[in-house]
Amino acid sequence: MNNSNVTAGERSTLLNPHLLLLQTKLTSPNSHSGGRWAVFNPLSRKAAVAVGKDCMPKLVALATELSSSDAERRRHAIAQVSQPYYQSLLDFGIVTAHETTMPPLRSSERRFVGRYHACVHNFDWFDYFDPEWRQKDDYRMQQYQRQSSPPPNFTSMEGELTALPDVDLTSADESLTLLHRVSAVLRWSLGPIGTVPGGPYLWLRRTSPSGGARHPTDGYLVHNGALEGIAAGAYWYDSKRHGLVLLPDVRVSGIQPDEVRLVFTSHVARPMWRYRDPWSYRPMLIDVGHVMETASLVADHFGLAALAIPTPEGMPITKHHMANADVAALSLAASNRRPQVPPPPGEYMQSPSDTSMDGAVITSPFVYFVFRDGELVARSAEGAESELPVSPDAFVLLSHCLPSTRDDRITTRNHLLEHFPGVSAGDLEELERRRILMSRVRAHAAYSATWPWVQHGWYMSLLAHVEGLGLRAYHAVTTAPLAQTTGSGLVRSLLSRRTCRTYSPHPLEPDALNAALQDALATLPESARLDTDVYVWFNAEARRAESNAFFYDWRANRLAYREGRHVCRADIRRLAIGQLWAAAAGSAVLLRTRMGGAEGYIDAITRLGRIGQRICLAATAAGLGVFETPAVKEPVAAELLGHSDSAVDSDIYYFLAVGHSVQIAGDFGAVSA
Ligand SMILES: Cc1cc2nc3c(=O)[nH]c(=O)nc-3n(C[C@H](O)[C@H](O)[C@H](O)COP(=O)(O)O)c2cc1C
């Protein structure tokens, strides 16, 4: 249908149900546009600024009306807009001409994480089918470099360093103290083991792979007296100098006297500097999964029992702690004393103490709005009980309470009540209770904490992260050694694993892959593989009549044949966004999990990394090479697996190519800058 000549009466009034209203300053920090709010379309990843400062912007009022279930109300609202304005609504995807062109809002998208997931679904990456992809990538990195240098490879903290003992991976024996064992876990999961040769920058190598060799995963430990010679407290692991630096503001609560809690964090700036898109939060979490699995395997190797648990409660809301964002944790204890399951964390973000008496309030940086049933609904990503429909007056008040660059807007409660007569004291209280407004002291801390994420466009990821941590369901997951590769075999694998992008043309024997997968997966407890499917295709050049598809049967613990179409190398290349080396190996292994709502999102993605790391190490032990990427085109995956589209929307994939490797010195393939 051509929409350019439609009359007001014929206009579609269907509002895109996915729309979000976000703060312009946080969505595009360098924007100097005239509006404080931007309507963001997660499906197209485009934002339109809602013009109008101290009033209800026309676009916000219109979208609210169009979200009504009352067709007459919608028709009346749309009839008021000019033809060019209507056309821009259509072009931008704010309204849609045909119901069928707009996927409905699924229940998982009610929460922010769901909308974030829709935003990164079927993501448009760099096109590796483009023969000039490398030159274009280099050019882009040069542009970034002109603006700012990439962040350093190591994260250091201010404070006195307590050196840790050096413990060789081969020296695991009974006589080691707990401090020595923990020191080994830190060193061999988070420390550097070499550098990637070539390239304009120093890239580190670790026992785990990392997207773009950024290695954002760091860690700190918390103990309550278990480590001899080190006072109870929280300590940053300085991986460059192999030592600990006290983190005085992290709360030490709920830690058993014989337990050492190792918390894995992501230094967001490292991947974000290179990957300025909302999707790249995903590989950052997968990276944590790899490192976490390595840490639990090293812990087992050194006679420690490990339990994977969520992050502890009480993280101070500071720029430092958001720059080094908590993702997951391991609870370690001597193996004759399995770590106790700690109590579920309470409040994730700890407020700074607020002694200010001025009663000023500021709109939270974690607030976003949705349009629903004719209402504008405010929500905070910070908590479950956070939703509140707001009146136009309350919205204008929330706009007024945004932090101002000149700090010239008065936002004390008394002033607000006087100047916004449509908002009552009860309304104000409710806005505060739901964390939509916060005290000025807390808000200052919270806004400065957003900067490490928003400076290169990771605001969507930040909101998903904050909500994901706040709503995370509590699961303690026991860890397990590999079935075969233990002792010196594990040591060799950890030290020799590297990403392989060049494979020999020899076909991979199904038995060889089956044995490697059994090594990786047979010992995994159910809780550690929750909802994860493992699909395999053995690669061949041409299409054949019979299927080359298999899956890992968790119950029988072996690869099993599956019906389906024959998948050839060209299909695999399409699946992995055109990366040629993804299709070069003898087999393609596709891990699939489901997003699991806000409660399970962070854990679902880190789980892919954990299982991926086990496959990397088991395949390395079997003399096979592995390439890994989460850059998978979901519609292609659905097509190759023969799944219907509706089931696919909530799927998250991690792709591994496994085959006989030909390692070439300096082969760093896609890694650039
Ligand atoms: C989550 C994740 C995503 C990755 N994505 C890609 C990718 O898309 N393309 C690629 O060539 N390598 C990818 N890699 C491999 C990294 O580039 C590689 O791990 C890094 O350069 C360090 O080299 P190493 O694994 O040999 O130590 C990825 C690795 C991880 C863990």
What's the layout of helices and strands?
Blueprint: E1 14-15, E2 20-23, H1 24-27, E3 37-41, E4 46-50, H2 58-66, H3 71-79, H4 83-92, E5 95-96, H5 112-120, H6 133-147, E6 161-163, H7 178-190, E7 194-196, E8 203-205, E9 217-223, E10 233-238, E11 243-246, E12 260-267, H8 269-274, H9 281-301, E13 304-309, E14 315-316, H10 319-323, E15 324-334, E16 349-350, E17 361-363, E18 367-372, E19 375-380, E20 388-390, H11 392-400, H12 413-419, H13 425-433, E21 437-439, H14 440-454, H15 459-471, E22 477-478, H16 487-496, H17 510-521, H18 526-529, E23 533-538, E24 549-553, E25 558-561, H19 569-575, E26 587-594, H20 597-621, E27 624-629, H21 634-641, H22 645-648, E28 651-660
Parallel strand pairs: 14-16
Antiparallel strand pairs: 1-5, 2-3, 3-4, 6-11, 7-8, 9-10, 9-12, 10-11, 12-15, 13-15, 13-22, 17-21, 18-19, 19-20, 23-24, 23-26, 24-25, 26-28, 27-28
Helix pairs in contact: 5-15, 7-9, 9-20, 15-20, 16-20, 17-20
The structure holds flavin mononucleotide.
- Provide the domain count: 4
Largest sheet: 8 strands, antiparallel
Helix content estimate: 25-40%
According to CATH, the fold-level topology of the largest domain is: NADH Oxidase
Beta-strand segment tally: 28
Over all CA atoms, what is the radius of gyration?
A: 26 Å
Query: Numbering strands along the chain, what is their spatial order in the largest sheet?
Result: 6-11-10-9-12-15-13-22
The number of helical runs is: 22
